[in-house]
Amino acid sequence: MSTPIRVVVHGALGRVGKEVVNATCKDPELELVGAVDAKADGNTLPLPVGSGTVPLSRDPSSILKQTEPGVIVDFSVTEASMAMVRLAAKQKVNLVIGTTGFSTEDLEEIDRLAKANGVGAVVASNFALGAVLMIHLAKIAAKYFDNVEIIELHHDQKLDAPSGTAVSTARAISEARGKPFVHPKVQKETVAGARGAELQGVALHSVRLPGLMAHQEVIFGISGQTLIIRHDTINRECYMPGVVMAVKKVVELKGLTIGLDRLLGLQ
Ligand SMILES: NC(=O)c1ccc[n+]([C@@H]2O[C@H](COP(=O)([O-])OP(=O)(O)OC[C@H]3O[C@@H](n4cnc5c(N)ncnc54)[C@H](O)[C@@H]3O)[C@@H](O)[C@H]2O)c1
Questions:
Q1: Which phi and psi angles does 126 have, rounded to 5°?
Q2: Which of 112, 128, 150, 169 lies in the 20 to 30 Å Cα band around 198?
Q3: Residue 185 half-sphere exposure, CB side, CA atoms within 13 Å?
Q4: How far, in Å, is the centroid of ligand 1 from the Cα of 186?
Q5: Cβ neighbours for 89, distance < 8 A, ≥ 6 positions apart
């Protein structure tokens, strides 16, 4: 077996970071060698299976120097991510970034730094394989249906509506169709908002309830039939197959790759 890929997790004490720590420890092709988090109050992170610890620090440069990773997985905050990119690329460390909120300029800088230093960087706003496939399948269906509505359902703590995934889906299927969908208006909306929001002819409905995690249905309709593509996640482990795949692929890449669909060969 080849040598495991040495991984440092940035944002390791966060909700997704903890899952990345667990997933890295479970995969025999990966080796967790260090962790960085602004909340670190000790200098070691206990590993989930009780098989020791790895160095933990608030200071990314000391961890990189100490552990010499092949890949950094980043689920932190945008500003911290960019600081990590600048540091890591110069030290020839590949990057898998799940943190959201980058500007176009940030993405251009990541690409420039990665190319200049001969490393790969994967930035994906959704590492859930099922969500990526849902959008891909909906793009295929989009050409054959005139009407579509999206229902996204999330936990009641979610700050925004509609979800970023619902908006990305609506944009992707409109682009795939090449013209707006038909959005039937009702003559009288007796309760305001009953028909949801509208984006490029796609009706968007947001449900917020305790007990939900993240779910979405894309419902296509044409005479006499409907087609429903549905994706459900039940916990943050849903991102891990995508993250692990990206870690294994990024070491063969140079420059920036945006989105998991490219890694999956869907584009
Ligand atoms: N791409 C995806 O599939 C996906 C999925 C879920 C969340 N996200 C994104 O991932 C990011 C993290 O999400 P989360 O739910 O785990 O958040 P979180 O708040 O639970 O975790 C973020 C962690 O980053 C740490 N952090 C903050 N500032 C830091 C700094 N300057 N240096 C080092 N560490 C720092 C925090 O202490 C915290 O432990 C967010 O941007 C979120 O939108 C992406």
A1: -145, 110
A2: 128
A3: 3
A4: 42
A5: 95, 113, 114, 116, 117, 119, 121
Superfamily assignment of 5-123+237-263 in CATH?
A: NAD(P)-binding Rossmann-like Domain (3.40.50.720)
For the question of residue 136 being annotated catalytic, the response is no
Query: From the candidates 10, 18, 139, 154, which is the catalytic residue?
Result: 154
The ligand 1 atom at the shortest distance from the C-alpha of residue 39 is 37
Which amino acid belongs to residue 210? Answer: P
239 in contact with ligand 1, CB cutoff 6 A:
yes
pLDDT tens-digit map of 172-205 = 999 999 998 999 999 999 999 999 999 999 999 9
The model carries a pTM of 0.91
Q: Would you call 29 helix, strand, or coil by DSSP?
A: coil
Residue with tokens 């390791």: 12
Q: Per-domain residue ranges for the chain? A: 5-123+237-263, 129-234
DSSP 176-239: HHSSPPP-PPPS--SSTTTT-EEETTEEEEEEE-TT--EEEEEEEEETTEEEEEEEEE-SGGGG
The conformation of residue 2, written as its DSSP 8-state character, comes to P
